[in-house]
Amino acid sequence: MTHEILLALITFAFVSSITPGPNNLMLMASGANFGFCRTIPHMLGIGLGFTVMVLLVGAGLVQIFETYPVNYTVLKLASVVYLLFLAWKIAHAAPAKGAEVSGEPMTFLQAAAFQWVNPKAWAMALTATTAYTPDHTFKAIVIVALIFGAVNLPSVSTWTVLGQQMARILTNPRRLVTFNWTMAALLVASLYPVLWSG
């Protein structure tokens, strides 16, 4: 892997990890509702889960989708249903009449498993393993996965911190309800590329 490809890969990993998407929107909502410490398992699940996903996609999982395209359609439908369910959970996480926030933050295993139905994660993994591994060797795939692992966790953590900081202005139950419904709506809006892509 040349220095130019390595620099391009690091840039791609940073930009794709820190821009809005299902993971980051859920982390911001979790940071606002549960705080940074209780969201750590969620962040670690994303970072490690996505790293494993890149390894497996690069190791040949993508060939299954090329051979059996119907599997991609099934994955897309599962992604939509699961994201709608998560949006519903976020929307209803707000307290009623000053009660404590209901629900629990996503666990490590839930966050890791979510990467497999996260459309943005699939797009990132497929792009990274096809565009940045020209020789497609196992060593190159491991390098791509490790770079994403190193860049992803600090990037997604900023969204949790942002949510935690927003919690200061979300002390009013009505504001928290509005915030959670807005996050839920943005999560649903993130499905647009999945539903209307070729």
Verbal overview:
The protein has one domain. The longest helix has 32 residues. The radius of gyration is 17 Å and the shape is globular. Helix content is 77%, strand content 0%. By secondary structure, it is mainly α. Helix 3 runs parallel beside helix 5, helix 3 packs across helix 6 and helix 4 runs antiparallel to helix 8.
SSE map:
Layout: H1 3-18, H2 22-34, H3 36-67, H4 70-91, H5 108-114, H6 119-131, H7 138-166, H8 173-189, H9 192-195
Q: What is the average per-residue confidence, as pLDDT, rounded to a whole number?
A: 82
Number of domains: 1
Overall geometric form: globular
Evaluate the radius of gyration.
17 Å
The largest pleated sheet is described as: none
Care to give the gist of this entry?
With 198 residues, the protein is mainly α.
Task: Offer a few descriptive terms.
9 helices; globular; mainly alpha; 77% helix; 0% strand; 198 residues
